[in-house]
Amino acid sequence: MTAPESLDAGEFHWLMDMLQTIDVGLVVLDKTYRVQAWNSFMENHSGKKPHTVRDQVIFDLFPEIPKDWFFSKTQSVFLLQNRTFTTWTQRPYLFRFRNYRPITGTEPYMFQNITISPLISASGQVDHICLIIYDVTDIATNSKQLQAANEKLGYLSRTDALTGLNNRGAWQESLKAEYSRHKRTGQQSTLVMFDIDHFKKVNDTYGHPAGDEVIKKTAAVLMETMRETDISGRYGGEEFTVILVDTSAENAMIFAERLRKKIEGLTVHHEGIAIRWTVSLGIAPVNDTVSEPMQWVEHADQALYKSKQGGRNRSTHYAP
């Protein structure tokens, strides 16, 4: 390769030295996708020396490069003489280089942003393109960690810490959404509310840590009994609630009795003491008599109150 006429030998030397030492990858490809230039960044991260890759087809050297996608990205550069870009959010990497950075060592591969530029010859044709590869692993890792942290914060803001169920606020949002779905589609759903019988006595007799164990175990049995489509929550204290989606009041009674009997058969051992408890349940379907979401809750709560009045450890349908 000879130095361009506009550069003397000294200028050409430092220009080539700069291209070799910059902390980005530099690859030149011809129209047949054969490598014509390969700088030190590419050599260091790939383990392939310039003389071994020269005139080799890039897809033979790196089979992980998706041909169809790469063709679509590069043909516009050849034909339209416009540069194009791709970021790590669109495609994590073009070249599968191992990530050896100690700070971001949790990522197995280097995340890359890529710029693809046309190299216009003296005749005005584009016979070569230049790939510039930027290592953005730090940026990508920080972004992923921030996203994960935000997702965790979002989860925590919706979740009851003791039970893992939806907290009251999150559950009420789901209640509103399910009520709106019913009004829009006419699909039936039934609300079940229940609480632990004589829970204050559990706390007073065995202490609050024992009470917490009872609440956690109750929540665990609820999650085991409900379907993935159902929406459960801790409504407050020892009171729980679950929306049985696309479920009639009759089928909700079957669910409620199954749940009640499971809890009745439970035993929690706390500091050598066996604790047993029961729950009372109220069942209320959504229908045209329910004018707004909280009225639906009131119906279930009234049915729960009748279970309490009737002797506890039972399930009761709402009756106007």
From TrEMBL:
CDD domains reported for this sequence: GGDEF
Pfam families: GGDEF
Top-level taxonomic group: Bacteria
Record SUPFAM superfamilies: Nucleotide cyclase, PYP-like sensor domain (PAS domain)
EC number, as in UniProt: 2.7.7.65
Coiled-coil region: none
Residue ranges occupied by any GGDEF domain in the UniProt entry: 187-320
Protein name in UniProt: diguanylate cyclase
Lineage: Bacteria, Pseudomonadati, Pseudomonadota, Gammaproteobacteria, Oceanospirillales
